[in-house]
Task: structure prediction
Amino acid sequence: MPRVGRLLHGAGLLAVFAVTIFPFYWMVSSSFKTQTDLLASPPVWLFTPTLANYAEVFADQKVVGAIVNSLIVAVFSTGLAVVLGTPAAFALARYEFRGKSDLWFWFISNRFISPIVLALPIYLVAQNIGLLDTHLVLILVYITFILPIVVWICTDQFRSIPRDLEEAARLEGASQFDIFWRIYLPLGVPGIAVSAIFGFIFSWNELLYALVLTRRAVQTAPVVATSFMSGYELPWGKIMATGTVIVLPVTIFALLVSRHMVRGLTMGATK
Amino acid sequence: MPRLATTGEGAGTGFLRLEGIEKRYGAASVINGVSIAAREGEFVVFVGPSGCGKSTLLRMIAGLEEVTAGDVFIDGARVTELEPAKRKVSMVFQSYALFPHMTVRDNIAFGLKMSKVPRAEIGRQVAEAARILQMEPLLDRKPRQLSGGQRQRVAIGRAIVRHPKLFLFDEPLSNLDAELRAQMRVEIARLHRELGVTMVYVTHDQVEAMTLADRIVVLRAGRVEQVGSPDELYDAPGNTFVAGFIGSPKMNLVAATVTARDGAALTLANPSLAAPLQVAARHGGGAQPGPGIGDTVLLGLRPEHLMLGDGPNRIELTADLSESLGGSTLVYAQTRAAEPVVLQAAGRQTLGKGEPFTAGFDAARAYVFNKDGHAF
Result:
């Protein structure tokens, strides 16, 4: 029975893996196919790869510009959310103050609302203060999404830091800021890294608000990728290559940051 | 050895002084009016069972815990509301509380850096601390690369570089294995001798208390049970709690009846005692009325004061079990009234279960406690 169970477990994992990885595989492999190979039925599995689609993508100023826009928006929204969220998380993790649990709930409740509900009001506000089609409006909107994630994950991370460390630092003359800056931030890196990845991926992939709040100047990568779908012909090769190019920065960022996500960074502090 | 303050109650002078300290968490009272004083350079140990409030008391001296009522004085200054860093105290935590992301060097230098000591001076101080604690080769390692004993040493190093007026130790050895614990104990004693700084040390281990302390404060349920030098507590425990806590194995307590009283001298009888026992009061006997004829008292006999075979006084026992410690043997036995008695006999003894034997003792080393536990 355990043997059968293990087999079933393995088969299940394999099925999930195949289902999740297949679209990704299809996107990457299609990006190297010619239009003929792409539309072949039944699909061809072995083909002569071509870089023509990529050449087309990088020749398209719109795509390159969109990736730059996405980078600006993702880096600033994630960065600002971390800068604002970690002190908030520190306070929530280590201080007792009135309304603490309400504030905590408020942070989480921001994520209860379906984004579409707020799309129109935010559009109207942005229009009235002249922020439509700017990097700033996307950065501000994305921060409202990322900040709760940062606060949420980092509060938990900071709570797991042994209190003795803070007390030892206090005895040594560290100010509250020193304690935050020299103890909690370095030891909170795993949580900060996780929330930064979430935030970055969110900003990078976000489509709804990018579509609603931008026109020409600040179109982000997902908006441009979908824009290829209009018209009479679907340039699948270019769409797939664009998709691959869009996925690349997040993947690289995630790989860079994952190094810091190791558990047990606090090992050796106590005991 | 520094001279000892005479009393634990409301001592008016001292380098470290606690006056009427109370601590309550809501309705729960943790410390109930503690007043003690320590002289400069003294090594004071707070000892007691877990939950007695000894760590809380230490944390209140450090300033990590607020005082509900009472005052803390360090070096003549009232520090009750002063923040921890300004009290000029260093603390070694049970968990060591080393900063895991910093090297040993940075851990030791942390406090100096916080007080903006010039870099060259920090280097000198760290080197000096490393020398005293013999850990120069470890300076560039991270805490996780160190053994428990080495971590403890780093924690002590971090404490000494700041030249505190007062050292606080919160059960610093309880995470170490037995051998290392003994070794570090000696090292802490040496450190105290070398630095000559006042130290307050919290432990639940009576061996640490006995070996390290100039003076022991025995705490129970947030109250001071007795204050005195290790020998004073051993020789004249104020009550059965202190008697049971100081000394290992614990003091035996056997019920006995007072058959005669002549001032501070009592005559006791017990079915297991071979002959009526004459005992003199250790605490003067006059301070309290004390037991009268016909009263039941507790006769305290330390295991190490009971000898197999003969002695000036004798008690008849029945053996249950013997445990050889190599050099000596612990014999677990019973009186005729089935009260447990342990005795520590020299050499190796083989007493089987149910074997009757006689243990001898000197009445001068017997203790008498009232029924309520107070020493007579």
Q: What stands out?
A: Chain B touches chain A through 31 residues (CB under 8 Å).
